[in-house]
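Subject: sequence -> structure tokens, single chain

Hey, anyone have a minute? Need the predicted structure for the following. Not urgent.
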Amino acid sequence: MKFTTLITAAVAAVVGLTSISHASDVPDLNGRTIVAVTENAYTPLNFADPKSGEGIGWEYDAFNEIAKRLNAKVDWQISSWDTMIQAVKDGQFDVGMDGITITEERATQIDFSEPYMTSQQFLLVRADETRFTDAKTFAANAELLVGAQPGTTNFYVAVYDMLDGDEANPRIKLFETFGTSVQALKTGDVDTVLMDSTSAQGYMGANPGSFKVVGDALGTEDFGFILTPGSDLVGPINAALKSMREDGTLEKLNQKWFYEYKVNQ
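Reply:
Had a minute. Here:
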């Protein structure tokens, strides 16, 4: 062998050993079925394919890969956001996901996985918006409205970081789903919707020329999978996430859903 070939073979061997080491750290669930739930309304994390109606998105791909590494199967279910946390807490589902921010309050109700994504809150507006350029100038104009889904991080950031801390402020228009609030923004019924940067990229990509982001980030948040308290799946899911982070799988999913997907819309 040439010297360069020997080096290549040695590197391949090390990589192979590393992969085996990582694989051995991921438990084998022996074909167990995991009942997973999402809302199917949070582009690009989870949503219905416009062509097939099938649930797709970053979270679908990520959790399917987690199950594959754990030698498990996924039984996908759909639930509205307002009942999801309670349903997972009660054991109706094993794991839930919907771009759910890890908070101390929620952690008293359910278990969280390790964070699978870190994001920030931004103001999504119509592409032709010129009346305000950030949260401060939005708050200063009493005629402007923000759309939000009750009980979400987006709602609480709008209340406490943009407006006056009054959760009943009439400038906040509530919608049953996140997608409905974005549609209201598009049609002019509200003037902004707060969302994490990853989802904002997804909506802008799926609706070319309709939206833009203004102002600085209003906060940083970590997303995690939620699980029934005391679940024996927390450790295995965290192990699979760790392996996916280390081998670049999570970054590949970011590339697919936050950059390549929008190009194809």
